[in-house]
Design brief:
This protein is mainly α. It folds into 2 domains: 85 residues; 36 residues, no CATH class. The chain is elongated, with a radius of gyration of 21 Å. The N and C termini lie far apart (56 Å). 5% of the residues are buried.
Length: 148
């Protein structure tokens, strides 16, 4: 069965052609792009938190540029509308990845205990170094970032 979606990278001698996005994309776009407002507020408050609290608690700072990368808009074959979309996604997903790392480092400092097992729960990867649920000794060894 042939692939209905053409590859994004044009073949030699071809150009990328933007096709009609469809009514679902047009309906979803205003909601999707309105998320920039809460994302910018998250970014501002996250940076305030990160730059204030981490030094006070002695938690190493997270390097922002290692999590937020906006570069896909530079692909020369993309039309302007997709350049904008790619820049937006790079910022939004990078910011959430950055926020996840900051939240995880905070959790590691204050509550390094795994959650009680629940079917279907997807534990974040940083929980692997946490003590088991209910393990008081393991919790004490890891509390405030002291994995002994």
């Amino acid at each position: 069965m042939p692939n209905a979606t053409p590859p994004l990278e044009p073949q030699p001698g071809e150009a990328f052609v933007l096709s009609w996005p469809g009514w679902r994309t047009l309906v979803a776009s205003p909601v999707l792009y309105s998320m920039i407002i809460p994302l910018v507020f998250l970014d501002l408050f996250l940076e305030l938190y990160h730059r204030t609290v981490f030094p006070i608690l002695g938690i190493p700072k997270v390097v922002r540029k290692n999590y937020i990368l906006i570069d896909r808009h530079r692909m020369p074959f993309l039309p302007i509308v997709l350049k904008f979309a790619c820049a937006y996604c790079g910022y939004a997903n990078g910011l959430l990845h950055y926020a996840f790392k900051i939240a995880g480092d905070t959790e590691k400092h204050f509550c390094p205990s795994k959650h009680q097992a629940h079917a279907g729960f997807q534990a974040p990867s940083h929980h692997e170094a946490f003590s088991e649920y209910g393990d008081a000794k393991g919790f004490g060894q890891r509390f405030h970032g002291n994995p002994k």
